[in-house]
Structure formats: structure tokens, C-alpha cells
Design brief:
Strand 7 (about 150-155) and strand 8 form a beta hairpin. The protein is an alpha+beta fold. It is elongated, with a radius of gyration of 25 Å. The protein has helices spanning about 5, 20-30, 80-85, 90-95, 115-125, 180-185, 215-230, 235-250, 255-270, 275-290, and strands at about 35, 40, 100, 110-115, 130-135, 140-145, 150-155, 155-160, 165, 175-180. Strands 4, 5, 6, 7, 8 and 10 form a 6-stranded mixed beta sheet that branches. A 4-stranded antiparallel beta sheet has the order 2-1-3-9.
Length: about 290
């Protein structure tokens, strides 16, 4: 199958009633599909598979021991097998389905999900033309090729490809283009090494008290603990902690890349992205006039 020519082009989804009918048409074009509930969420795992207790993923070539026949496991349950889609085990999900989802990576596709008007305008300025599908808040731009999925690569922009699902909203318009390097670059997580500006030592030229290893080490260790022990409001905690560290140690030049890397590592272990860490550090420096 040539995905560029056949993706959603056999007949518009609205021409055939029923979500299962739409799913079968997409599956016949080589697009793995799954039922979606209200809110664009996949069918929940069955009791035997809750919290991935089964240890595997059905309907995948490299599946584990899971033998569940129901549409569990979100994107990993997406399939092109019509016998699976029409099986009794999937019937309840299709009766309650509010939409059809598909696994773009399984169809050798990448979807750039643009959630705002500003994001759509950015795409028009920076991305090559391709198939576009209107959404409730913006557009999906569909490219030929597979990459790792990543949310919030910039404001209002998500990348959906491998290990992700997208709601089917119709065939869209335009010809699907090859996945460009500019989109590939969006999913690369850069190694962030914030530069430490050279700051003057205290007046009088005396030795900075922060260079005492124990004093500085206690401050950094305390900051790491604050971030690690945060149970909520992680963004705010990271910013306040960075602000406190810079208030105490930011004007004497004793902070090194190694110290800052420890703080960033603690924040990223709590789920913060490198970009959020950099933004928080920059905002704290600006707040203090450093």
C-alpha cells in the first residue's frame, strides 16, 4: 500500500454511517484503528489488564503474554484486522464509541497537532505544505514518515506518531508530503547546559564564603530535596527553589555547571522538561537582576 495515495482517500468518513464502518474503511487502507469514548479517550483496560497487570500488549507483533481480546492498551490495541474489529469482544466498545482513533506510527505517518490559531500560523510560516485536517481548535498536518511522539514541542504544538493515537476527523485536503527535518528536530530533547555568567566577588576582594565546600554543598543538597519531595505544584516549586539558590549563591560566581546540572536533573526527575528548567532558571535570574 502507498500511504501517501490512499490515506483516507477511498471515501470520506461521513459518507458511511457508523464508527465501525469508518474504522473498517481505514483498516482496509492500512491504517490501524481503535474505538474512542467521549473526550477522545481510548477504551479502558479490562479488569485483567488494569495497570498493565497482564504484562503485554494485544494485537502487536512483539506482544507479551497478554491474551485479552478486547480493545485494551490504548494505541497498542489499534489494528487493521477486520476480524478483530468485528469480533464479539470489541462489539461493546463500538456500540459506545464516540469516535475512531488511529495509530499514525502504525500507518507510517506523523501528525503535527496544532491546537491554536497561533500554532497554525506558525506552521504556515515554518513547515512545508502537506495534508491538513481541520480540528475543533486548529489543524492536523499529516506527513509521511515515523518519529517519536512528543507533546508540547512548542506552544500549542504536539507531535503524534509512534506510541500515540489521533482522532480520525476526516481525510483532509492536500497531498501528504514527506516528513521534513524541521519536524524531526522538534522532537529532539536538547542537552541543556545553562551558561553561568561571570559574577564579581564580594567587595574587598576577600574569599567568597560560598566557596567553602560544605556551605555550598548543603545549599545544593537542600535545593535538590525540596524539588524531589514536592508532591504538587512542581513548576512553582522548581522556580522558587532556583530563585532561592540564586539569591544565596548567584552573585559570587561560585555556582558551576555541575551544580546547576544537579538542580536540573532533580527537576527533570519530577517530570519537568529541559525547556521548563531553562525557563525557570532564566526567570529567576531576571527576577534577581543577574
Amino acid at each position: 500500500m502507498t500511504q501517501r495515495a490512499s490515506f483516507g482517500e477511498s471515501r470520506p468518513a461521513h459518507a458511511t454511517p457508523g464508527h465501525l464502518r469508518t474504522a473498517l474503511e481505514l483498516a482496509s487502507a492500512g491504517v490501524p484503528v481503535l474505538p474512542l469514548r467521549h473526550g477522545k479517550v481510548p477504551v479502558g483496560n479490562c479488569p485483567a489488564c488494569t495497570r498493565n497487570a497482564c504484562g503485554g500488549r494485544p494485537n502487536m507483533k512483539a506482544s507479551g503474554p497478554c491474551a485479552c481480546a478486547a480493545p485494551c492498551h490504548a494505541w497498542a490495541a489499534a489494528t487493521t484486522d477486520p476480524h478483530v474489529l468485528t469480533s464479539p469482544a470489541w462489539a461493546p466498545a463500538w456500540r459506545e464509541a464516540a469516535g475512531v482513533g488511529y495509530h499514525p506510527g502504525g500507518a507510517r505517518l506523523t501528525v503535527v497537532d496544532l491546537d491554536t490559531a497561533d500554532a497554525v500560523a506558525w506552521a504556515h510560516r515554518n513547515l512545508p505544505a502537506t495534508r491538513t485536517v481541520p480540528t475543533t481548535r486548529g489543524q492536523h498536518w499529516v506527513y509521511q514518515g515515523v518519529i517519536r511522539s512528543r507533546n508540547t514541542v512548542r506552544a500549542g504544538v504536539d507531535i503524534k506518531s509512534s506510541m500515540a493515537y489521533v482522532r480520525w476527523l476526516g481525510p483532509g485536503v492536500g497531498t501528504i508530503a514527506a516528513l521534513p527535518d524541521v519536524v524531526r528536530a522538534l522532537v529532539v530533547r536538547p542537552t541543556v547546559r545553562p551558561a553561568v555568567q561571570a559574577l564579581t566577588t564580594p567587595a574587598g576582594g576577600g574569599e567568597c564564603r560560598h566557596r567553602t565546600p560544605s556551605y555550598l554543598e548543603r545549599g545544593i543538597a537542600m535545593a535538590e530535596r525540596q524539588i524531589t519531595q514536592a508532591r504538587s505544584a512542581v513548576h512553582a516549586t522548581v522556580y522558587r527553589t532556583f530563585l532561592a539558590v540564586l539569591s544565596a549563591h548567584g552573585r559570587c560566581g561560585c555556582l558551576t555547571d555541575a551544580h546547576i546540572a544537579r538542580l536540573f536533573a532533580a527537576a527533570q526527575a519530577k517530570g519537568e522538561s529541559p525547556r521548563h528548567c531553562t525557563d525557570a532558571w532564566t526567570n529567576a535570574r531576571t527576577r534577581l537582576g543577574l
